[in-house]
UniProtKB/TrEMBL annotation:
Stated name of the protein: NfeD family protein
Top-rank lineage group of the source organism: Bacteria
Membrane topology category: Multi-pass membrane protein
Organism of this sequence: Streptomyces monticola
Compartments, record wording: Membrane
Keywords: Membrane, Transmembrane, Transmembrane helix
Amino acid sequence: MDIDAWVWWLIGAVALGIPLVLTAMPEFGMLAAGAVAGAVTAGLGGDVVLQVVVFAAVSVALIVVVRPIAARHRASQPELASGVDALKGKQAEVLERVDGRRGRIKLAGEVWSARTLDASQSFEVGQQVDVVEIDGATAIVM
């Protein structure tokens, strides 16, 4: 029993789809689409050379055209900060004098321990400070 060439191309497309799912690398999907194009060419009676040329042309065209568009789309979406990353850049109110060693602030409705970025600086009760970094359970402010 001899398997037709188009079936081999579809097996190749499925084989390329597996790493696409496992690694989330879209290039595998583009190669799988090229393999499907090779299967269509084989199903329409194209010879092996034409099948390989169609596979290569479709795969390369998708990688050259679609990949940069996807990269631009991915880069243009705003990154959603969560957890302590969302607190960086926020303003806080000083509850207890903050210096280079210790202090307390009210940040996002919660009381945090804090220290200044510059050890020679200090902030008094009631002042507004900007959170620069979160170091464990301590906010670094300026």
